[in-house]
Amino acid sequence: MTAEMLTTILIAMLGGAIRVSTPFLFVALGETLTEKSGRINLGLEGNLVLGAMVAYAVSYHTGSPWLGVLAAGGSGLMLGVMHGVICSLPRVNDIAVGLAMMSFGIGVAFFFGKPYIQPSAPRLEAWPVGGWSDNPALRQALDINPLFFIGIAVAVFLWWGLANTRTGLILRMTGDSEPAARAMGVDPIRVRVLATAAGGFLAGVGGAFLSLSYPGSWNEGLSSGQGLMAVALVIFARWNPLRCIAAALLFGAAGAIGPALQSVGISQGYYFFNAAPYILTLFIMIASARLAAGQDAPGELSITK
What is the pTM of this model? Predict the structure, then answer.
C-alpha cells in the first residue's frame, strides 16, 4: 500500500467518521440523559427511524429541511413521553417497554412513510469547512453538516449542565438514589418522564440527519440498528456527554472503514469491514459486563441491580 493510498484511506475515514457519527451522537446523548435519571430506553431505534421519516415528509411538503428537523425532534419527544409515562406505572419493566416502543416507532414510520420512498425532499446543506486545503478529497471530507456541530454543542451543554446546575443535580440524584430524591422533595417519576422525553427528542433529531443529510433519503432500511448500538456507546462513554463525542466518532470511523477501502480499489473483505460497528458493539457489551456495575453507572439503573 502506497503512502498516497494510505492518505486517501485516512481522509475517507475522517469524512466518514464525521458523517456516520452524527446520528450516533444524538442518540447517545439522549440515552445518556435518560439513563442519568435512572431509566433505560431501548426504544430509541424507533425514535430514530420515526424521526427520519417525519423529517423527510415535512421537508418534502414544506420545502424546509430545518422544519423537518424540528418535526423529527417532536416525533421523538412524543415517543419519549409515551415511554416515560408507561414506565411510571406499577410493576412495569423499562427494558420490555423500550423494546415495545422500538417496534411501535418503526411500525408507524414504515406505515406512514411508504409514499415518501420515491419523492425527493430538500436536504440539509453541509458547511464547507475544508476550504483552506488544496486537497480536493480533504475538502470534500470536511463538508460537514451543521447538525454535527449542534450535537457537539449539545454534548458540551449537557456536560456542563449535569455538573453545575440545580437541574443537573436533581437529575443525577434521581438516577443515583430514588429514596434520596424523595427525601429532598423531588418527584422521581416527573424527573424521569421529562428526561426520557428530552432523550427521545434528541434521538428524533438524529433520525433527521439520516434522511436529510447522509445517506439523505428515506427508506425502510435506513437505520441499520444505530439506535440500539448507541446504548452500548453510552456504556462505553461511561455516561459522560463529552466522552459520547469521542465514542460516536469511534463508531463512525468503524463504519467508514469499508467505504474508505473501497475508495482505493480494495474490495476484498468489504462486507466484513462493513460489519465493524456491530463487532465493536459486541466487544463493548462484553467488556462492559463489569463496567455497568461500576461507580460511573447511575445507581437506579436496572443493569446495576
Answer: 0.91
